[in-house]
Amino acid sequence: MPTPLHSQVAAQLRDLILTSELPPGTSLPSEARLGEQFGASRGTIRSALAALRHEGLIGGGQGRPPVVRDTAVGQPFENLLSFTAWAHQVGRTPGQRTLEIARRGASAVAASALDVPDGTPVIEVLRLRLLDGEPAMLERATFVEAVGRLLFDFDPDQGSIYAHLATHGVDLYSARHTMDAVAADEIDADQLEVEVGAPLLRERRRTTSSDGTPLEYGDDRYRPDRVTFTIDNARPASTGVNHDLRIIKETS
Known about the structure:
Elements: H1 5-18, H2 31-38, H3 42-54, E1 58-61, E2 64-68, H4 83-89, E3 94-105, H5 108-114, E4 121-131, E5 134-144, H6 145-148, H7 161-167, E6 174-183, H8 186-192, E7 199-208, E8 214-222, E9 227-234, E10 244-251
Antiparallel strand pairs: 1-2, 3-4, 4-5, 5-8, 6-7, 7-8, 9-10
Helix pairs in contact: 1-3, 2-3
């Protein structure tokens, strides 16, 4: 079945934005000019632009010309666990390259997060995560052994670890995320294609089951030029108490 013309137009404009041929702040041509360029009706152009607005790639509207944004695309907090699901949701192509899966003794930091003694056998995973083929995040995950051993019968390069574990009945119920900044070490720099010491965004994650049992400790490091985080909250006028907190991961 042929791809609709509005999808073709959106795809071409999206590629220009994501490759920085249309950098942030650039005003797009008028609907009439775009129609001439793509041989499309004004309605088709409007549909294409609406798709790009929905993805967060352009701003404007309501009489204002469309302007390229910094390609920030939001992710609801409840999906923060799954890089793969989030990338698909925002129209990007996720990828991964598994560097290591190993059984070894838990480090002091991981042991503390998992509530086990230092040196307890755990399963460690090191993966490079990609967006549209480009390195975006280096994932370090440490699973308790009973959960992590399920990964030895799974190819992590073929999809989501969390989805695989969920199909095997693992209760990945909730997580606490801590965000900060770190300098890239030699492994980070080599895999993410940055200089040693370059600033990275770090997300440390402690995932638990519905009864509070720790299952995973994560230390994920993102290139800040490709992924950023935004926190949104709201305060009811009647109480003055923050009641709605969302953490949004964005691509750049």
